[in-house]
What we know:
By secondary structure, chain A is mainly α. Chain A has helices at 2-15, 18-41, 50-68, 71-92, 95-112, 135-155, 157-167, 169-174, 179-205, 215-227, 235-252, 256-266, 268-284; strands spanning 117-118, 121-122, 127-128, 207-208.
Amino acid sequence: MRFLMYVVAALLPFLLKGYVSWLIGLALIYATISISWAILENEGRVSMGHSFVVGSSAYLSAITYLLFNSLAAGFLISIPLSAILFYILKRTTGKTAFVFATFTLSLLSYVIAPYIVIGERGGEEGFFILHDLPSLLFSSFSFVASAIVFESFLKSKLGYFARAIKSDELASRAVGIEVEKVKLTTSVISSAIGSFAGLSLALYFSHVSPEIFSLEVSVFPFISYVVTGGRKEYIAFTSIVLFLISSYLNALLTGAHLLLYAMLLIFSPKIGGWVYAKGQERLKV
Amino acid sequence: MALTFLENFFIFSVFASLISFNFRIGKFLNLSLYSAFSVGAYLVYFFGELSVILAFLLSFLIAYPLFLIKERICRGVMDATIVSLGYGIAIEEILRIGVQKGYYYVVSEGVRALPEVFIASYLLLIGFYLSPHGIRLKFIEEDEELARMCGVNSAAYGFASIFIATFFAILLGVVSSEGAAIHPRIGLSYMLAGILIAAIATIKRSVGERNLVNITAVSLAASMFLEVFV
Amino acid sequence: MLKVRNVSKSKGRVMILKNVSFDLEDGETLGLFGPNGSGKSTLMKIIAGIETPSCGKVFLDDLDVTALPPEKMVKLGVVYAFQIPRNFREMTVLENLAVVLMNYHSVDESFKLARKMLRDWDLDYIAERKVEFISHGESRLLEILKAYATNPRVLLLDEPFAGLDVENVFKVREKIERLREEGLTMIITSHRRGILSNLADRFLKMEGGKIVES
């Protein structure tokens, strides 16, 4: 059923026209970012720096495109780069410190990005990617592929091992689960999906700027997760809806969507539990 | 970032010590401090020297709700940190929607008292640690739950830490914005520097006033690094 | 089969284990008893690779396995069941067991096997319950069953009767007796010798980090 819903969501931009089509295409990219985030959450790691995964992919793709006329090179570099960085952070920090560390990483990249200049390009303006690739098709495809990977991951050995690690790392090791291998693999999968999202964003706008590393991108998956009440299997759909609502709010009043994000973050400890409890009630009915 | 070596040093050390103090006593990483800094920058733009007094009032208005939310709905460090980020974004957006126009404000006449704020914040924090409260603060730093069980009012100290951090973050915004084009996110890079410096200083695992000394040393090194390489 | 040689462990200035040595034969059940703080749990954790000794060696079939990580020890057949059950809180009882079996079987097979094992241990009535909603006795049985699911050669049961009421003590005893009848090699700790009677072939008494009676 969910698989069908993923396909329908991915087809929507092609069935609709104009701005709505463009907006849903963008929402699919944000949903892909959330999927990448949820893979880490399944292992108990709350990333507040996912803009780094997305941004580094977009930036590196743009840079390699500028230097070598190759988008793929940057994209391919960004996967191991993010994966190794996140794996190192997982190894060296506990669950709480991971939140701080990833947030700091995202802030750091946000502050440094305007200083990235190649030749006379880059800086605050960022980089342009002039291409004639079907970016909407690429975004939709990335979304469906990521969603399928995510669903398979949740039902796979790896997904179960990750959930066990989320509950208790030492107990997982004591029953023979190879924790480090699982951590590394989830980092790679999450980074690969996040990098696809980054490349999709770069292609979608034909441009990347330091804003790709912004707080909004970092907190968006977490907020989507809060709204789902912790049911990560629905995070993709929640992200699409949340993105559309925030775009509408932003159109009404610039920055209003960030106020919504702020409120959701402030009351996140309550909202998550409340939505979860309501969901449970519904399921019982 | 501030221009001179000394300015950098003052801002880094005050911000890092505030972040560290809030984290150790309030028990969360207060990510709303960057917005408090921005509030200070806007205060000085609109109110000039009066902003120092207003900073005190505003810091209570900002710190108390955050403290209440933290106490009532947060289950731990992670929750409180995420809540404080939301709080920071909310203040930032209120500034953007309520105050900021399509162009940048430039603070032409600010309040020049950065060294004084540096000295005042350090005197207050060190005085706090060396006073009879110091032993309780160190107790909370090491084990808050145990301190609470032994009758230490850790909630009151927690509020004090949030209030002091917010107050000085606003003051930093007030005294370091002269000549700057201000915007609601102006404090973000200072907070980032503060977090990194506080994290590096923590490596020595000192508590109380010793940690403040470590922060000062790391801030000095960071300012020198910026002076030489940037 | 298992040899512990001159194992010592210190934490700061405190010596928790002092020169502990003993052998464990294939199929044997060893009862390790002694007062709280005598070093029983630390010794068990060192054997299982959860803690590392300050000095000394642990051999399994003459192979030096000192300080191997716990996941490697599980692969070699040495498994530790925690004193305070550490089940996976966010999972159901069935998933808790299945996730252990997934180390050796496919996902579907693991679930099938887990159901069978829960039936065998009379725990099938809580299969779909999350572990936070099961009793301490059930939690204890699940902890032992999880360790057993790894198909161990040496099972280390740390205080399996701690905090249990009489009824649950009998239940756990019954399961341990079953494991013993299957010929499994075990070390069981308790702070009372009496509770281990008829369960162990041999006893070691620990006190102040040393073996004082064998």
